[in-house]
Structures are given as structure tokens and as C-alpha cells.
């Protein structure tokens, strides 16, 4: 039986809303993409609505409870409160976008949810992942169908359930290659989020994608723990510290870095607490920042071909020190998403709009080379009927 939502695309590309509430717990990104699930026809409006401190606290508590729970025993009570709060924050963010956006009319929404725990497959055992997010409630609030729970089907099939953005990253790279009239093209979309991940694409083989290692996550955690804000704005603290090279050398021996992709991480697999609790505040910030950049560079150097272009996206591209480390190695190949007209802070939200359209059309959203799924498979749960408010 074909998906009821497929009907939405019978006349061609449509505006689709996409949401992302990332592992940094900084806010909700919402973006509009006009697509037929194959191509990006047009990029629409987008915004980020930051969580308030009170909201962040509820989400952080749910994340901490998830780590302690680790799939055993009773589901933590804090999940229900966090789920309702973040779902309603998504509805509010969408309303703001519709109010101040460009008048686009979405027919569907892609709702990633909030990852609170991610346990990749291990020793032949399937993995598990949990994204909080009430699809039914969001559909009711928005008055349009919603696709959510994008990662479960892939994990049930034996995949990592992440990263899922790669099919969208390749659509972006294809758009750029067409603009440049260039067929032979090796490009990378690098997401510097709480966890860092990239998609490497060339002309004559399937794309490769995986989580490269920690991104901003441990840095944010370290800054917050010292009561110095939510993140190291403009790398002020890292710039004042000394990098403990011997520690980085040691951490790079972690088996994750020698494991061949596909592979994925939980945000807390590399936590500041485990890594730098014996360092001064500034040295901790400096060492974590250098480590994140180093793991990205190491992952890039393991690719079959050197990319001509590495497009930096995600919040970490606003960190001048991470970008400097990357530029020292990559030179002019490193570019900021905005320099080619992409919206660097909206790409994950755009990706979930694109993935929602693909899910509606029952097109694959994950692949052997990106999540380790046994074959290209679709995913996502559908809320097809809505009650308008
Ligand atoms: N000016 C800045 N200086 C340093 N770091 C910054 C700056 N602006 C943003 N960041 C970093 O970017 C982070 C937010 O990044 P982003 O929104 O891409 O993460 P996310 O989407 O939550 O993560 P993920 O992709 O893992 O889900 C902040 O928490 C901070 O660490
Ligand atoms: C389990 C989970 O939520 N993973 C996120 C996280 O944030 C970045 C990286 O780790 C990536 O694997 C993924 O998100 C993006 C959107 C993805 O699936 O492509």
C-alpha cells in the first residue's frame, strides 16, 4: 500500500517544513524547503528560536536521566514533561516562521525530535535511539500532516540510525555542482554540531557519511559547568588556554577513530567530564576545541579522494578557533555555507523537511554507506490526519 501522504506530492514539488532540535539543546531550527523528495527546488524562510534557560534545564534533565536510565527499568518521568515542552516549542517556532516568513504554505512537516539517548549497534546487536517528540500533538498544533521518528526503522534493520542528513547533503552538493556546471566534483558537507559529522561525495562512487567525533558538545558542557555561559563565544576561553597535545594523542587512540564507517555517536560518548576534568578551565577549553578539529581532519584524511570543497555548516562554524584549525590544513577548500548561499544554521532543519517528503513518497532515507542499513530503506512514522485548531 502506498503512503497516504504521497498524494500531497501528486502535482509536483511542495513546501515542506522541517525542524531540528539538536544535541546542543540551544533551540529549535525551523526551515521551509520546496521539494519533490528528489531535488531541492527552492529554499524558503527559516528561523531559530532559542530555548529559554528554563526550557534548556528541562531538556538537560531529561538527557541526564536518559544516560542514567540507559534503557533499563522504568522510563524516566522527566521525559513526558520534556517531550510536551519541546513539541509545543516547535509549534510556536513554526507559528513565528509563518508569521514572519515569505508566505510559503507547507503541506507537510518533518519533525526530528530531541535525541536524549543514542546507542549504536554493537557486537551484532541492534542499536536503540530515542528522540522525544509527540508527532500527534505537533500535527494537531500545526494543522498539517507530520512525519516523525525518522531513525527507528533504520536501527530495526540493523543500521546506526544516524547520520540521516547525508541524502540532503548530496542534494545540496548536486545543486552546487549544477550551478558550477561541474560533473567531476568531490565535495564534503561538514556539520559542526554537538557531534560533528560529514558527507563526502564524488562523481563515481556512493557518498560516504559518518559521525567524525565530538563537535561543540564537550566544549559547551565544560563552559556551562564553570558557570561561564552556554558556549565558548568566539573561542574566547580556548584562545586563552594551552592545548595538552599528549592528551589528544591519547584520545585519538580510542577505538572509535580507527573503526571504519558507517559509525555514529551519542553526544556524551566524549564528554568533558571524562576528558578534561583534571585541567584548568582555559586549558580544558583549548584542548577540547583542538580535539574536535583534529578528529574532523583525521576523518577527512581517511577519505578516498581529497575534496575540492568542504562546506562548513552548523554552529561550530561560528567558532573561529575550530575554523582556524580546519583552515590550516584545508586551506581555501574550506568554505562557510553562507558563502555559496546555503543557510549554515538551517541545514539540519531543511534536511528533515526533505526527509519528510522522501518518507511520504516511500523513498529511501538511509543507505548502506551512511548508516550501515542492509539496503537503502525509508523510515519515519506518519500522522496523516490532523484536526485544525
Ligand atoms: N560565536 C560562537 N562561538 C563559538 N561557538 C559557537 C558560536 N555560535 C555557536 N556556537 C556553537 O554552536 C553550537 C550550536 O550548534 P548547532 O546548533 O549546530 O548544534 P546542534 O544542531 O544542537 O548539534 P547536532 O548537529 O549535534 O544536533 C553552540 O552550542 C556553540 O557551541
Ligand atoms: C542520534 C542523533 O540525533 N544524532 C545526530 C547528532 O547530531 C549530529 C550527528 O550526531 C548526527 O549523527 C545526527 O544528526 C544529524 C541531523 C543526522 O542525522 O544527520
TrEMBL record:
<comment type="function">
    <text>Catalyzes the specific phosphorylation of 1,6-anhydro-N-acetylmuramic acid (anhMurNAc) with the simultaneous cleavage of the 1,6-anhydro ring, generating MurNAc-6-P. Is required for the utilization of anhMurNAc either imported from the medium or derived from its own cell wall murein, and thus plays a role in cell wall recycling.</text>
</comment>
<dbReference type="InterPro" id="IPR005338">
    <property type="entry name" value="Anhydro_N_Ac-Mur_kinase"/>
</dbReference>
<keyword id="KW-0418">Kinase</keyword>
<dbReference type="GO" id="GO:0009254">
    <property type="term" value="P:peptidoglycan turnover"/>
</dbReference>
<keyword id="KW-0808">Transferase</keyword>
<dbReference type="Pfam" id="PF03702">
    <property type="entry name" value="AnmK"/>
</dbReference>
<dbReference type="GO" id="GO:0016301">
    <property type="term" value="F:kinase activity"/>
</dbReference>
<keyword id="KW-0547">Nucleotide-binding</keyword>
<comment type="pathway">
    <text>Amino-sugar metabolism; 1,6-anhydro-N-acetylmuramate degradation.</text>
</comment>
<dbReference type="GO" id="GO:0097175">
    <property type="term" value="P:1,6-anhydro-N-acetyl-beta-muramic acid catabolic process"/>
</dbReference>
<comment type="pathway">
    <text>Cell wall biogenesis; peptidoglycan recycling.</text>
</comment>
<keyword id="KW-0119">Carbohydrate metabolism</keyword>
<dbReference type="GO" id="GO:0006040">
    <property type="term" value="P:amino sugar metabolic process"/>
</dbReference>
<protein>
    <recommendedName>
        <fullName>Anhydro-N-acetylmuramic acid kinase</fullName>
        <ecNumber>2.7.1.170</ecNumber>
    </recommendedName>
</protein>
<comment type="similarity">
    <text>Belongs to the anhydro-N-acetylmuramic acid kinase family.</text>
</comment>
<keyword id="KW-0067">ATP-binding</keyword>
<feature type="binding site">
    <location>
        <begin position="22"/>
        <end position="29"/>
    </location>
    <ligand>
        <name>ATP</name>
    </ligand>
</feature>
<dbReference type="GO" id="GO:0016773">
    <property type="term" value="F:phosphotransferase activity, alcohol group as acceptor"/>
</dbReference>
<dbReference type="InterPro" id="IPR043129">
    <property type="entry name" value="ATPase_NBD"/>
</dbReference>
<dbReference type="GO" id="GO:0005524">
    <property type="term" value="F:ATP binding"/>
</dbReference>
